[in-house]
């Protein structure tokens, strides 16, 4: 059987071994005095339990600072401080603003990885230029805000107040309709809509709306 | 299993019913794999003990302080594979100070003389130095498999020694260790004629390895089944690795975002298309929705998808899932939110395990998943039996619904990240939630509780959780009675870990009878005093001298209290 008691890393780490097993031990200031706080199960339910609650704990803390002689503590937990005092100090390190590394219980490799990405957690964006034929001033559009051609067409139709055709559409086109084209990474101008949406996103560089009778 | 008739071997063989030669017994026992069963076997009688002793090739030690290496080698002379666990689980969360112990060196020295043919060493939460790794590499010529999980004390130099000298290595699995990363040169240390590797996992190392060396290694190791690269490996490089090793069954990709040309994208998709044997996929750092579709063809046989490093949004996640119809285990970040979990419920009917990790693991943060995502999953995934769920709010009603939908839970771990948070709709404690868990899930073996909890929740646990083996408690309970209920009521309890609860000496000492049958007890930031601990040490029955059975691991009790050193 091994019995190990150890001190937290906050205070001086000091290890001494008893005969039977290793005993490393230090005591939390709050609980050095087994004060006369009466405990009842109700006290743990009432009052908010937020970590910001500090008045209860601070009084206990000051009380216990004066009592450093633990050998005089003979009471075996017959009087207990209530659980309300536990919460604030454990987590809200009043000295520093640094988040606790031991709660929530997430392993460091994952904590670090996610922290790195913490700044990039907004949705990624991909703006491309859109020109309407005959109009010298273009617009810009975030392609990542859409998930399919339908959404893109709808947005463009709204942006330019036109009707846009695309392949496989069941419509007889008139002279007023427009067609959406794009310039791909190889510099060619292609009709939008032939390739899968995801593939389109990897290759599109800019968009142009041209009149249907030109295609 | 043959009948366990007790035999008094001193009475001579004429009294025995159908004895069979020891060789037969040893042969039969060779088929008994589970270490718990093996321990049971060894307790039947002296002959069976002896047969187990000689035929045992793999030993599992859940608590490295429970037995000394000398005793181990004396009892089992033919061990080829050792699994050792050291520090308590809370050391993962920085709750155990450095230099606590669990050093492997003393074990290795004993093994070097007693088990020169040692082939496998699997360590969890042990301290391993570079010197130990060097010693290992030189002492065991047949060494095949090294797995280090959550260990610390070594650097990439130690890995270099292993790569250089272990000529028969089949497995190198380095997972989530506190390793000092001095560079990626270790990978280049595998000799050019080395080709036996089957499992390579260096996903948690940060330094860039020589891709050239990696590619050549993957090419010549034709039996490579598991490859988990780190995030320095790019998509383009991944494509090349995959085309060399389409036989992989487990893949950990590197970083999953890069500016690919259309051609490169097509090649990547093609490479994944050829990897239809994959049953496990992980990595996917910085996965962007742009390239995820390249994965789809490879997901057709996937049973385990680990997205815990990929911050996916719900839309792209929902598109990915229908491509994984056979999914049984899913680990995901809470960036997918409740909407993403709804997609899980509708796309993954075979799901058995769900772990949702927090993208922002801080108290008082925002976003993430709520109780409605949890319920949505339970509605669609009726086979769910393992969950680890980090959330910022939960309700008693939701948990009750979840366990009603999925009554077969064996592992139920819910972490409401703000400590002592009540049911956010009713403002009541979460007692009824965990009460419903233990009442409904009779097969429950592992439970982690959170939120505002009074002693009532522990009364429930003690009354109903009769198969419970592991219990994790934080910021909960009102008095000693809570812990007492658990100790009195859960006969199969083996591991109890408690932090920041108002349990004191009375509770601690009430478990005197129980501790003998447990593996470990952890208490930190509770109201236990030093005198209570002294009393415990004095009152606990001494460990048996002589021949301790490995089944009843001596207990490791760890009690820590923050603050000033006493005396």
From TrEMBL, chain A:
Gene3D superfamilies: Phosphatidylinositol 3-kinase Catalytic Subunit, Chain A, domain 1. GO terms for cellular component: nucleus. Belongs to the Aux/IAA family. Aux/IAA proteins are short-lived transcriptional factors that function as repressors of early auxin response genes at low auxin concentrations. This is Auxin-responsive protein. Residues 40-60 have a biased composition (Low complexity). It is found in: Nucleus. The keyword Endoplasmic reticulum does not apply. Residues 125-214 form the PB1 domain. One of its GO terms (biological process) is regulation of DNA-templated transcription. It holds the Pfam family AUX_IAA. Residues 37-60, 87-118 are annotated as: Disordered. Its main location: nucleus. Keywords: Auxin signaling pathway, Nucleus, Repressor, Transcription, Transcription regulation. Homodimers and heterodimers. The keyword Magnesium does not apply. It comes from Protea cynaroides.
From TrEMBL, chain B:
Transmembrane segments: none annotated. Keywords: Auxin signaling pathway. Residues 20-61 form the F-box domain. The keyword Nucleotide-binding does not apply. GO terms for cellular component: SCF ubiquitin ligase complex. GO terms for biological process: auxin-activated signaling pathway; SCF-dependent proteasomal ubiquitin-dependent protein catabolic process. It holds the Pfam family Transp_inhibit. SMART domains: FBOX, LRR_CC. SUPFAM superfamilies: F-box domain, RNI-like. This is F-box domain-containing protein. It comes from Protea cynaroides.
């Amino acid at each position: 059987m091994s019995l190990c008691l150890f001190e937290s890393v906050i205070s001086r780490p000091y290890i001494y071994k008893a005969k039977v097993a290793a005993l490393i031990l230090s005591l939390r200031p709050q609980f050095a005095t087994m004060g006369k706080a009466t405990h009842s199960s109700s006290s743990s339910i009432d009052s908010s339990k937020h970590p910001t609650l500090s008045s209860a704990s601070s009084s206990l803390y000051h009380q216990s600072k004066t009592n450093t002689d633990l050998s005089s503590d003979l009471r075996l937990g017959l009087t207990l401080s209530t659980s309300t005092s536990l919460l604030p100090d454990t987590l809200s390190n009043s000295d520093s603003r640094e988040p606790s590394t031991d709660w929530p219980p997430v392993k460091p490799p994952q904590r670090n990885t996610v922290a790195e990405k913490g700044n990039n957690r907004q949705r990624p964006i991909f703006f491309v230029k859109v020109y309407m034929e005959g109009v010298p001033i273009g617009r810009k559009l975030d392609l990542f805000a859409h998930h399919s051609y339908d959404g893109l067409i709808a947005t463009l139709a709204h942006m330019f107040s036109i009707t846009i055709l695309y392949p496989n559409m069941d419509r007889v086109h008139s002279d007023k309709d427009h067609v959406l084209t794009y310039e791909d990474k190889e510099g060619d101008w292609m009709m939008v809509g032939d390739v899968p949406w995801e593939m389109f996103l990897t290759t599109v560089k800019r968009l142009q709306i041209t009149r249907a009778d030109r295609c | 299993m043959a009948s366990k008739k007790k035999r008094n071997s001193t009475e001579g063989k004429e009294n025995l019913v159908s004895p069979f030669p020891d060789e037969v017994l040893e042969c039969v026992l060779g088929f008994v794999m589970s270490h718990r069963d093996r321990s049971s076997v060894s307790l039947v009688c002296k002959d069976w003990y002896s047969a187990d002793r000689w035929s045992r090739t793999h030993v599992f030690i859940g608590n490295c302080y429970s037995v000394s290496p000398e005793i181990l080698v004396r009892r089992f002379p033919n061990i080829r594979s050792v699994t050792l666990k050291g520090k308590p689980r809370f050391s993962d969360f920085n709750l155990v100070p450095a230099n606590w112990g669990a050093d492997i060196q003393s074990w290795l020295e004993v093994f070097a003389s007693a088990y020169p043919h040692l082939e496998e060493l699997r360590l969890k939460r042990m301290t391993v130095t570079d010197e130990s790794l060097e010693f290992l590499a030189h002492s065991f010529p047949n060494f095949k498999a090294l797995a280090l999980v959550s260990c610390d004390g070594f650097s990439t130099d130690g890995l270099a020694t292993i790569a250089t000298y272990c000529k028969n290595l089949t497995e190198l699995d380095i997972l989530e260790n506190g390793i000092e990363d001095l560079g990626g040169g270790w990978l280049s240390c595998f000799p050019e004629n080395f080709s036996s590797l089957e499992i390579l996992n260096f996903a948690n190392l940060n330094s860039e390895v020589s891709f050239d060396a990696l590619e050549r290694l993957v090419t010549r190791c034709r039996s490579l089944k598991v490859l988990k690269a780190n995030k320095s490996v790019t998509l383009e490089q991944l494509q090349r690795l995959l085309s060399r090793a389409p036989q992989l069954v487990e893949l950990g990709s590197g970083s999953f975002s890069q500016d690919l040309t259309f051609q490169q994208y097509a090649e990547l998709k093609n490479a994944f298309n050829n990897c239809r044997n994959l049953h496990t996929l992980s990595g996917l750092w910085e996965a962007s929705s742009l390239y995820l579709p390249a994965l789809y063809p490879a997901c057709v046989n996937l049973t385990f998808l680990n997205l815990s490093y990929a911050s996916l949004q719900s839309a792209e996640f929902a598109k990915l899932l229908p491509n994984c119809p056979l999914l049984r285990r899913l680990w995901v970040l809470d960036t997918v939110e409740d909407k993403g979990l709804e997609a899980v419920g509708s796309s993954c009917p075979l799901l058995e395990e769900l772990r949702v990790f927090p993208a922002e693991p801080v108290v008082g943060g925002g976003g993430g998943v709520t109780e409605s995502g949890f319920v949505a999953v339970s509605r669609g995934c009726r086979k769910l039996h393992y969950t680890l769920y980090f959330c910022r709010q939960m309700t008693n009603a939701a948990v009750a619904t979840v366990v009603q939908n999925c009554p077969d839970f064996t592992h139920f771990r819910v972490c409401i990240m703000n400590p002592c948070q009540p049911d956010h709709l009713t403002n009541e404690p979460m007692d009824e939630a965990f009460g419903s868990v233990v009442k409904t899930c009779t097969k429950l073996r592992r439970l982690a509780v959170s939120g505002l909890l009074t002693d009532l929740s522990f009364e429930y646990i003690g009354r109903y959780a009769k198969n419970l083996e592991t219990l994790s408690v934080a910021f909960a309970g009102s008095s000693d009675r809570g812990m007492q209920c658990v100790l009195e009521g859960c006969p199969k309890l083996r591991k109890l870990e408690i932090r920041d609860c108002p349990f004191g000496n009375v509770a601690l000492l009430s478990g005197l009878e129980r501790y003998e049958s447990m593996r470990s007890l952890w208490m930190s930031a509770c109201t236990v005093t030093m005198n209570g601990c002294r009393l415990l040490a004095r009152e606990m029955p001494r460990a048996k001298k002589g021949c301790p059975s490995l089944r009843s691991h001596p207990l490791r009790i760890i009690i820590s209290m923050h603050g000033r050193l006493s005396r």
